[in-house]
Amino acid sequence: MRAEYKVIISAVIVAVSFHSSTATAFPGKKEKSAEVKKEAPLTPGDGVDRSGAYDMFLQAVLEERAGDYPAAIALYQKAARSDETSSQALRRAAGLYLIIGDIKSALKTAEKCVRINADSTECLDILAGINTSLDKTEKAIKYLQEKIRISPEDISAIVALAVVHLRAESPKKAIEILEAAPPSTSHQFVFDKYFLGRSYIASGEYEKAAEKFEMLLGGRPDLSIAFENLAWTYRMLGKWDKAIDLYRKYLVINSNDLNIQVAMERALSEQESGKPVAELHGDILKDIPEEINYRFFLGMTKWQQGEMTRDMNLIQEALAQFQLVRAAEPENQTVISYIASIFESLNLLNEAVSAWKQIQASSDDEKKSINLKIADLYDRMGKYDMSLKHAQIAAKLDPTDPELMFMTGFMHGKLKQYDDSIDVFKAALDMNPNNPKYYFHLGVTYEKMKKYDLCIEAMKKAITLKPNHSNALNYLGYIYAEQDINLDEAEKYLLLALELEPENGYFIDSLGWVYYKKKLYEEALDQLLTAVRNITPDPTVLEHLGDVYIALDRIEEAAKTYQSSLDAKVYDDRILDREATRKKLDTARKLLKKRSKN
Q1: 31 Cβ partners below 8 Å, 6+ apart?
Q2: Residue 498 falls within a domain, yes or no?
Q3: Which of 109, 214, 480, 591 has its CA 20 to 30 A from that of 413?
Q4: Which residue range forms the structural domain that includes residue 180?
Q5: Which tens digit of pLDDT belongs to each residue from 42-82?
Q6: Is the pTM of this model over 0.85?
């Protein structure tokens, strides 16, 4: 059987440098404090169907695990309406709303969840995060305080509360919260010490700030933010030697960090000036390292952990944090690119496309990369017309790249626009005449157009350029078998292909088909049974096996195999003659019926 390369339009992800910034607040009036209501569970009224609600909840969980978040949300909401005393469905719906970036619905659903269950820490966290992002400080503080009351050891909530106070220019309150916090045990969790140091900086207590950053650097010597902040604090204290020594140590590890190089040059200049710190204080203060965005950094930490462990829960948590950053900074290109990438890893392809389209590329190279990424996503969704559109945009941005030209030709083929596909492949070959991949797909397209002589010519050219091109060897052998010509030569090509990929079930099928055409039915049966074992049920391979059973007069097995062929799914764009298979099945069944009467 012919097996095409599965070509996925790949893209170089737009390079985004890691930079963090303080949250840009939404404009708006400050809202009054909103106390968290502790309502008693609602009394179920007539029509409450807890059994039905539970069934819907379980179905929603399955939809969530399958990655269909909109369907899961709808079921969670339906379950919540069926049993108004339960907050579980609302909690999960609110979390999913946040993950997909529907901040308004996440806020509304989490508020309803907390009205039913005031101790839902997950919903309190969502409410705190959203209100922080929307610069509703007093509400955020109330929700965080309530969460900490319920979970006093929750260091993440404690840090979040301190950060809200720090952003509200209340560093003394932030210090009070962090100094009273239980010690964090996770090696990855550095935010408590970092923000304690930043709070002391904000309050002008540089000695204490240096002490906290020294502690942080002692536990995490790989952490660049600890280097930068500690060195800067030394400068504010007039400890030039310590600052310069720290910069030099950092540059041994990260020699290309221009920001640190500039900072060290300034420290050297400050030292050489001989001026007292009081005179330099204002200039040094302007040079303070940018404060990290807590939610963004937390998202990065969870994403890195999730990617390493393939823990989808951590990846979802990372996405939730990034969405909160995006709510505060809707134009933050870096966070949008991370959101788009995570949507891809969660197979939320429509959402990924939407996110990539919001990236404002700064160069033609970035525009090209983004359009290729979008083309790939549309291809994976089976939206070949949209995939072609974006592949063409990318090709126009770099008309000298034959690979981009090839990609557009490939998408024309998926749309069955074979004449266009041929024209584009030929144009790619004009740019790169020695590319066997282009000849291979040119041959595949000719075969779909039933131009078999041209197909054979293109496949031979691909093999000449790349003698170990296993797919071209298989394709050529299979075409010969289908045309019932050059069967000895076909066998030779297929044996070469199987030397390269001895377990490839499609190649084994092709060889079995050659043996069938040569009327070597036992040999054909042996190969086809092996092929069936090596691949998922394939309609063409099973039909071949049915034909061999017919040739061997094993009619009952043939009938079963033809039925299996009709039941098998097609996972590519092959054109199958299902009617011909049905006729073979009918013939086999009639023959069986006739024999049973005899």
Answers
A1: 136, 138, 139
A2: no
A3: 480
A4: 164-292
A5: 334 444 567 788 899 999 999 998 889 999 999 999 999 98
A6: no
